[in-house]
Amino acid sequence: MTASQAAQAENGDWLVGNPTSLQLASALWIGSVGLLILGLQPVLLGALYTEGHVTGDELALVATAEMIAIAIGSAIVAMLLPARNMRWKSAALLVLLALANFWTAYAGSANALIGARTLAGLAEGGLVAVATELIARSRRAERIGGYFVTLQTLAQCALALVLALYAVPAAGSAGGFIALGIVCLLSLVVAWTVPDDYADLPKEEQFANVATVPTITALLSIFCYFMFFGAVWAFLEPIGAQFGIDGRTVGLMVSASLAAQVIGAMTATVFEARIDYRFAITIIGIVAAISSVLLASGPGLSVFWAVALVMGFILLFIVPYQIRLAITADETRTAVLLVPAAQLFGLAIGPIAASLLIDGANFRPVPEFAAATALASVVLLGVFVLVARRRGKA
């Protein structure tokens, strides 16, 4: 570390480097573009299914392939590539993602759609790493992480509204993916205002820092929590149908849940420094398990609504505390770079694992599985705390 970097680490808000507010905001936007699809999948993939481009099984494969690709892309860029020439990398990834979206718009088969969304996911994961690499360098990574999830969710809400009201009704799913590609190209202007080179974090052996019991346990806790949400969210409509709630009403619940996610992210940003991460993750895990049990109990409309809103709120409320968990597990902050991968793998694997338990038209095992994974995340946190105390970290 140079003398100037040492001075910045001592006096500023950054461990290394000193990005301006504009540079930080630009990096967070680039990362948000990479995660826009998370809020748009119900609109865009639903349109693909309605138009007959894919069957239900093929739709699940398309969604899962993209989620796994995002996780892989974020891990590869964060762990294997140096944080240099970030403007060029951001621009190249945005162009690649735009091309993948245009390919999706004109894909003629399910295999082509899977290929297009896999390519999109790899580019999206790289864009996420542009943001998480900078977040990891902040002394207040939890707070910056809260800003990140707030920004991305607001962007998802706004774009989902535009697509649902204008692009998709006018031009179908193709119009939606073309609009998403245009957003990527417009964001090229922002790409040239991110920091070009991120100062190096003080670490030597990245993989050695990750391959420890505390770090692995922390990442598994995050993975299990997002398995809970992925499982429930993927099957929310058939779960509702089993208990007499129509698809239109469930669609309204999804929209309202996105708004609850924004509120959850903003609330966490305000309170993250006042609540211990262990307490927050434990309480949220228990709330997640209770919510899942309520879904499995055959709830009425009002309880179903309440559960959907609560799940939306806690989904992003927990993120700053998971970032703190990763920092505590690995003070070199390498583990922080893998938090998005753990989250996205959980979102992708949750529906697949839960689907193995579905018996015909009975979807009750899905929320039961979700309750188990939510509790598993709390148990793994407990294991982490015990191990970390022995090593003097907690």
From TrEMBL:
Where would you find the membrane-spanning parts of this chain? Answer: 27-49, 61-83, 90-108, 114-135, 147-168, 174-195, 207-236, 248-270, 277-297, 303-323, 335-357, 369-388
- Taken from the record, one Pfam family name reads MFS_1
Q: Which lineage ranks, top first, belong to the organism behind this chain?
A: Bacteria, Pseudomonadati, Pseudomonadota, Alphaproteobacteria, Hyphomicrobiales
- Quote the InterPro entries the UniProt record gives: MFS, MFS_Efflux_Transporters, MFS_trans_sf
What domain of life does the native source organism fall in? Bacteria
Q: Report the subcellular localization.
A: Cell membrane
Which organism does this sequence originate in?
Mesorhizobium australafricanum
Task: Print the keywords alphabetically.
Answer: Cell membrane, Membrane, Transmembrane, Transmembrane helix
Topology within the bilayer: Multi-pass membrane protein
Protein name, per record: MFS transporter
